[in-house]
Amino acid sequence: MKAIRLAVTALAVLAFAGLTAAPAVADDGAALMRRTLKHDGAERVYYVFVPPGLADKTKPAPLVVALHDGGGRAERFARLTRLSEAATRAGFIVVYPEGIEQHWNDGRSRVGFETFVRNTDDVGFIKAMIDEIAKGLHAIDAKRVFALGMSNGGMMAIRLACEASDRFVGVASVAANMPDRMEHRCRPSAPVSLMMIHGTNDTMVPFRGGDVRSGLKRMGRVMSTEDTAEFFAQRNGCALTAVPTPVPNKSTEDSTETIRLEYPECRDSRVVVYQVDRGGHTWPGARTGQPERVAGKTSQDFDASQTALDFFKSLPARK
Known about the structure:
Layout: E1 24-25, E2 31-39, E3 42-49, E4 61-67, H1 74-81, H2 83-90, E5 93-97, H3 114-117, H4 122-136, E6 140-150, H5 152-163, E7 170-174, E8 193-199, E9 210-214, E10 217-222, H6 225-235, E11 243-246, E12 257-263, E13 271-277, H7 292-295, H8 304-314
Parallel strand pairs: 4-5, 4-6, 6-7, 7-8, 8-13
Antiparallel strand pairs: 1-2, 2-3, 3-5, 9-10, 11-12, 12-13
């Protein structure tokens, strides 16, 4: 698999429903409101975080849909990412939905979990969830709706870019690439910005593409990080030579280095890749998560949550 093309080669080595009686609380102290929604014959659960600074419920606010990893939980994802903490500073509402049996129907084939077997309409559920929030909880700025996810959740975010481009201005994926089945049916009706963060030593969702693995079990296939980024760069009219910028190596103890690659000249959008050299299947900046012997190394050079929100804030609002 070819390396991501660089403009400066020398830098390549330097990548509405009822509330619960009491809100859940993430490790960062953020209160999450639990809500339920009936969709496609199933009761779906999601958690909403509204920063204290957004007390005026009639004033439209930007929204981030935060999608947990496969086998994960919404509240656990909130704790891992500390996204609510970053959203408080940035002025974003965050919603953390739950997948069916802890998984999202991200478009892969030959995956045995219920949501894949039943072809669960997760795209429709997420759209309906956004509508419910806008109707009963807080006004949403429809021109600034974004999705962010890790692993299975990151693949689901990419599927939203493909199939719900009328709703999402930009998406960000961590440790995730486009499922290979999606390439031939990904037809965004409008440019959707994409930010990807991926470790080159990810053994679960390979940076260079191929089989997704959990131990010895294969769970579908994905494109490479480069091919995923170039797919959206082509769709968005970007130049296909990525411009590299090294990310400051703030932590020498994590054994990782990161380079940011941006595809220039995009049409009303951006496409950016953070290539984490020697990084694993991890969330950069996280204080918790799977042990290194399982997931690999976690970069502490930057915070994935803050980086994603900064990316979203930089995007032009949908016209």
